[in-house]
């Protein structure tokens, strides 16, 4: 599973709506008001370290870690598969 989905989401709800600066080991997946989903590679940074980094900068109200949905995993596998899988199937 780690090979197919080497990432997780850290969901942080801040005390107020914030402009999130760049983090070297995480990207903003989406933001809804004061809630931000960070996508991070489990091999590059731990959730604990990412939480530590964020709490040094922003006041956080709530935080959770989520595994990717099956749709995200399928998209990741498809996008990173050899190009042979990106060709239409033809009858032989």
Features:
Alpha-Beta Plaits, alpha+beta, 2 helices, single chain
What does it look like?
By secondary structure, the chain is an alpha+beta fold. It has one domain: Alpha-Beta Plaits, CATH 3.30.70. Helices cover 21% and strands 32% of the residues. It has a four-stranded antiparallel sheet with strand order 2-3-1-4, with helices on one face. Strand 2 and strand 3 form a beta hairpin. The protein is globular, with a radius of gyration of 16 Å. The relative contact order is 0.25. The model has no long low-confidence stretch (mean pLDDT 83).
List the helices and strands and how they pair.
Elements: E1 7-14, E2 26-32, E3 35-41, H1 47-55, E4 60-66, H2 70-79
């Amino acid at each position: 599973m780690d090979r197919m989905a080497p990432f997780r989401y850290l969901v942080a709800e801040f005390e107020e709506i914030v402009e999130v600066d760049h983090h070297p080991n995480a990207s903003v997946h989406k933001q809804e008001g004061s809630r931000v989903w960070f996508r991070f590679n489990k091999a590059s940074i731990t959730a604990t370290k990412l939480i530590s980094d964020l709490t040094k900068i922003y006041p956080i109200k709530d935080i959770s870690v989520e595994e990717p949905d099956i749709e995200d995993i399928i998209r990741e596998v498809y996008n990173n598969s050899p190009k042979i899988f990106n060709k239409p199937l033809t009858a032989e």
